[in-house]
Amino acid sequence: MNTKQNDQSIDRMNGAERAMKRACDFVGAFLLLLLLSPVFFIIYIIQKINNPGPAIYKQERIGKGGLVFNIYKFRTMVVDAEKDGVPQLEKTDDPRLTDFGKLLRKHHFDELPQLVNVLKGDMSFVGYRPERKFFIDKIMEYNQDYELLFCSKPGITSLATILNGYTDTMDKMLIRLQMDLDYLKKRSLWLDAKIIGKTVVSLIN
Q: What end-to-end distance do the CA atoms of the chain give, in Å?
């Protein structure tokens, strides 16, 4: 995939800040994986008891530099959710969701395995949500600036994730893109801390 990854002008963070951000990501992901390991175990057992197929699934996404990586999630949908092979947008009340998957999705527990992605360096705690190439190509039919995001790592949370919710329409995808570009232009460690705080508050509420 051709990218504008060499265009660093949109990213406000300097090299020292990006190094500090990575260090915080690594330490935070490591500690949370240790702390939440009992939760992982409980979710895994319930999944295996109630739903056939793997408890955790991986899916190809596009990250920094336009490179492909596998994102990890607790499975919330039936095994053959895309049996026709055509990628589909996820909806809040998607009929493909399992009963336990609805519970995981409601409390965002399905996202917990992405801590492994953060630990590995595929993702950060804060950043644009990584998307599949199929949908990136669709978005870029409307706005080529999506490629500007590839100068940074995708994240578990963002202002767009908090305020824009699930992107189940192209209009919401384009709104999310603009919010992600705005974040990149003014991001800082302090802004990341505020976004993480907002995320915690939204999860509690």
A: 39
